[in-house]
Amino acid sequence: MTNTGYSQMRPSLQFLVFIAVTVVMLIIGLLISMGIITLLYNFDTFMKVSQLQIDTPNAISALWIIQFISTTMPILAIPVFFAYVIVKEPESYLRLTNKFPWQLIALVFITMFMSLPIMEQLSDINQRLVLPPFLKGVEEWMRASEQQAEKATNILLKMDNIWDLIKTVLFVGGLTAIVEELMFRGALQTIFIRWTKNHHAAIWITAILFSAFHMEFFGFLPRLMLGVFFGYFVYWSGSIWTSIWAHFINNGTAVIVTYLYQHKTIKTSPDDTHVFSLAGYVFSIIITVLLLINYRNIALAASRNTTADGTELD
């Protein structure tokens, strides 16, 4: 594809522009959500909910508005605006093609579940992270931020009935997966592939930014590894839909398990660790690696010469 206009920008400059667009979109989203909550309720409600004071009337509804308007919609608008308006290459920067072997959908599904012990072990390692004494203040801030994020998540994942479950699966599992994958595995990963000229480096850098973006420091490692999986799914297949599907499975499963635990259908908390044995971890690693190799071979066999952005697969 011949680049025109802004798409001739160096990848480093594209990254800076992308960051600028991100900041502007998030600010706009925050202002719009503040305006909507102020109109529907009052400004005091917005301020209290922003501080996660949920004892105020309409707090949960206001929190959903903030989540949707100030976070989810801007994250969707950022890559779409960047791809269509800034670089004018939506095919390369969004990767919305559905031309990939559909066996990959089944492989993604199996891989996500077979890798659960790996993610659980990484989470356990992350939770035991202790910084050096001279960084005690940083660690305390990280733990406080984690608790705030967990509090907000628990509010959003409070599901009283099956309709709450369906709504939450569609929003947290579906919509969140779409917007985050377009932003990270779509636009950002493409920028870093063109910048570093090394897809491995690009996938890991994007995964690091993806995990850091969530501001949940003691869940950094498992989210990093998820980001790596998502990145390779997209790179090998050339399609964003593979990582959206993987992301949906991850988030949707967490929502369903939370619902079942809340309603005492299962006894295992979604926050529990040490669920698997050593044999389970070893088996998970072996099978996950084999599944990823199989995924790669099928994807490359279907499109051996070029990826969606015209670079040679290897």
Automatic annotation (TrEMBL):
The keyword Membrane applies. The chain crosses the membrane at residues 15-41, 62-87, 99-119, 201-221, 233-261, 273-295. It holds the Pfam family Rce1-like. InterPro entries: CAAX_protease (IPR052710), Rce1/LyrA-like_dom (IPR003675). GO terms for biological process: CAAX-box protein maturation. Keywords: Membrane, Transmembrane, Transmembrane helix. GO terms for molecular function: endopeptidase activity. Residues 165-252 form the CAAX prenyl protease 2/Lysostaphin resistance protein A-like domain. This is CAAX prenyl protease 2/Lysostaphin resistance protein A-like domain-containing protein. The lineage of its organism: Bacteria, Pseudomonadati, Bacteroidota, Sphingobacteriia, Sphingobacteriales.
